[in-house]
UniProtKB/TrEMBL annotation:
It holds the Pfam family Polyketide_cyc2. This is SRPBCC family protein. It comes from Piscinibacter terrae. InterPro entries: Polyketide_cyclase/dehydratase, START-like_dom_sf.
Length: 135
């Protein structure tokens, strides 16, 4: 199983990033604008449309407000296994650290998924930091 671990510093308070991340249906408007272009939440599942046209059904496994962690799994598609989480940590005044972890099969998909996570973290930084500076 391939494991991917990526981190980014986001120049917003941790609670602000967490408020956007825990909104499981608001990816395209609150967390990663452009990287995700649409997200439809139905109960504990969401259908996510990425900027590259890929559409994925994801099941929300857990939203942990104490640990500021959301976990999900992608079902169907080219991956035989996928689970991921995003966790938000305090890192200094007015900034936080976003940690995105994914475990997946087949191994051969790891480079493509790692690239998508990099794009997602970059979009997260732009989305959240631009909202703060626009105020």
């Amino acid at each position: 199983m391939a494991s991917i671990h990526k981190e980014a510093t986001i120049r917003v308070p941790a609670q602000e990033l967490w408020d956007a991340a825990r909104d499981a249906g608001g990816l395209h408007t609150r967390l990663v604008k452009g990287f995700v272009t649409d997200c439809k939440l139905e109960g504990d599942a969401r259908t996510v449309t990425f900027g590259n046209g890929l559409t994925v059904r994801e099941l929300i496994v857990d939203v942990d407000d104490t640990r500021r962690r959301i976990a999900w799994t992608a079902v169907g598609g080219r991956l035989s296994h996928h689970n991921a989480s995003l966790q938000v940590f305090e890192s200094g005044p007015g900034e936080c650290r976003a940690v995105w972890t994914a475990d997946l099969l087949p191994h051969e998909m790891a480079p493509a998924i790692a690239a998508m996570i990099d794009q997602g973290l970059a979009a997260m930084r732009l989305t959240l930091e631009n909202q703060v500076h626009a105020i």
